[in-house]
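Title: [Solved] MFS family permease 3D structure

Original question kept below for reference.
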Amino acid sequence: MQARTGRPGKSLLAILLVATGIGPLLSYGLNAASDLVISELGLSEAQFGLLATACFACAALGNAAFGRFADRQPDSRLMVLVFAMATLALVLAAIPGGYVLLLVASGMAGLAQSFPNGVTNRILTERVPADKRIGWIGIKQSGVQVSQLVASLGFPALAAWIGWHGASAVGAVLAGLLGIVAVRVLSSVPLLPAPLVPVTPAASAPDAAAPAPTNIGFLIGALAAFGFVNGMGVQATNVYLSLFAVREMGFTLVLGGMAAAMAGAIGVTARVGWGRMMSRGIAAPPLLLLLASMAFAGALVFTAAGATGSAALLWLAVALHGASALGVSVVLMAAVVRSVPASSMARATGLVSAGQFGGFTIGPLAMGALIGSPGGFTLGWSVTAGVYLLCVLLALYLVVRRRRQGRAA
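Solution (posted by the thread starter after getting help):
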């Protein structure tokens, strides 16, 4: 069997992808059916944005608070937690209990996103050979965009048939079944054998090539900061993309869901592609600068689409969003896996993820307030462009700092 040879197969990669994507399933589904949810519950745009804020606030707190706890837990127990909480969130959303219950469900979906990045990164470090790890990060991080693709197509279609509560119930059944499969697959893949290091004076001395703890600390802080700023733009766009397409561009509910699905589909390809580039040894700062520049251009095209009513510009903006902002996570996670030992992987990953989710928390709430103001979506997209411009400046600083360190070395 593949697992006994130390060369884990595609089944492990598949469950890593699913574990990364199962937590956001409810949020993406609600976003895709946003016009229906808003009208049925009588919500304002800001109230709808608060659902995403509750989700990502819980995710940010969970990633920041549970890192040390996750480092002490076995992988199988964390997998059970991830899928159980995602299933419970979808079950709560399936109950027609009003806005408050939906807020609770969104918070539970956020807690389900407290552990996936940390545990999947640790699984890669401890169970997957080094030559596969960085490439696999791109694939497993695409699970979030696979979730966006599936939810954006499935929720509107199911909602038209059995309502969005029914769509949530279908999602709950799916999440529960996938959780059972994930735990079974994980139990069949052993840890890699520990490397044998000869005890010699050279081996016992500190590795001169290894980054100093202060450098690792700076790296984690810088990645978290970039993830925070990028995260504001990502979810400001994701949460209101379908609503923008329906209300401002005249799309149907299903076609608006397809716009979000297209962003997810392109995001899947982008994350895999950026992961492969990282696996070839490309440093994170130049890639972050490229992605930030593309995201900034995408926000400007969203603004132009709203001003002109051009569907072609909307699709172009969606493509830029999917290829750039949605690809940032894989670069951040690959940088963590490259630099952090397995014993601290969950905590380090949690801190970087907390930065991202902190941005996810603010973005939807701010965007909802902006589009509910007289400035509408035009103001919202303009501010989003400003957020991505800040990402460009942060990435540029990291590039310059890296070059200076290279010259000094």
